[in-house]
Amino acid sequence: MSYPKVLRVQQNFDSAHVADIPRKVSEEISKLGLSSRLKAGQTVAVTAGSRGVANIAVIIRAVVDELKNLDVRPFIIPAMGSHGGGTAEGQKGVLEHYGITEASMGVPIRATMETTQIGETAQGIPVFFDNHALEADHVVVVNRIKPHTDFDGDIESGLCKMMAIGLGKHTGAIHYHRANIKYGYYTVITNVARVVRQNCRILFGLGIVENAYDETAALEAMLTPEIEACEKRLLAIAKANLARIPFDQGDVLVVDEMGKNISGAGMDTNVIGRNVSQRERPPIKPSFTRIFVRDLSDESYGNATGIGLADLVSRRLVNKIDLKPTYINAITSTNIEAARIPITFDTDREAIETAFSTCGNSAEACRMIWIKNTLKLDQFIATEALMDEIGSQPQLEVLEHLGELPFDADGNLAGLL
After folding, report:
1. What is the reported pLDDT for 302?
2. CB of 62 closer than 8 Å to CB of 25
3. Which CATH superfamily is 32-241 part of?
């Protein structure tokens, strides 16, 4: 088979970001006037999630330090639903990988999967809450606000979701995901979060927004009554910042790596144009006929949830899969199709040739995009068939012509990204 010639393309985004994160966190918390709400020596649980949030260790440490300055006793709790294999030690291990340890944070980390039911929603959905958080005098919710991978709304993935699924742990996640089938994600997340705010001692929320370069673009602290309104406003900013593939249609998408640290769905569905759940959202752009995923990130710890979004995968990816956390995650979310393993190839060359031969276009005319992952889209590889569209978009720049699609001696794609 002859292979198309490819180009290295630069995509330029707004690069505005927070230069001094600890200082910004201090300013945001200071504006809340917490002194009158706190008593010396009170305990404050600070949430830390499982997503690959930029600068998360720096942000959490800054929150902890500000709380210490207010003469209270903060501690950190993993708030990540069923992730980390659905165990307390597994969730603590996820935080450790992100640099969040008792030594680096200077406070205890208290991990448990035990929860207590603290109420129910108007729909009759039981609401659960992490026992360590429930025992604390106050809770601070910290999370990135971004578009969700499975549904659209004015509240998607952020502080409300953290209060619902994150602090609901595995038990809560099971109940809420099942309820999603009947009521939809938006209704469940927002209603559960309201019950949490009404019945638990949420002190404040800290919303994080990232830019398209995976950098911290905004940090905003808000008191509990303001969380829903602030999250809606910050989500609009996050959606405007989201890095996307700048074409509506393509024949083949090649992704170097997927993983839970990259997206809750392994690959951001807003980027690849495919949904894990077919219940919530109609087809979105871009549209690719074939998607080939080459590897699983080490930071995913074998969790390959979302692999079912691909059409073709490599043997090295499949060999890295830990079925236990993958199945726990897929079953808990009720999206078991997300754990389906696609057709598997020993070499990239075999996978690419199969993608070309089944995409409905010739290899020479194939509209192919090759990305590192769905977070990093400032540079990508494209075939020359996309040259006209690249030239029509001012944010795109061809950096170099690379010749034919390159393979090494083992039949795998040479590392260009």
Report:
1. 94
2. yes
3. LarA, N-terminal domain (3.40.50.11440)
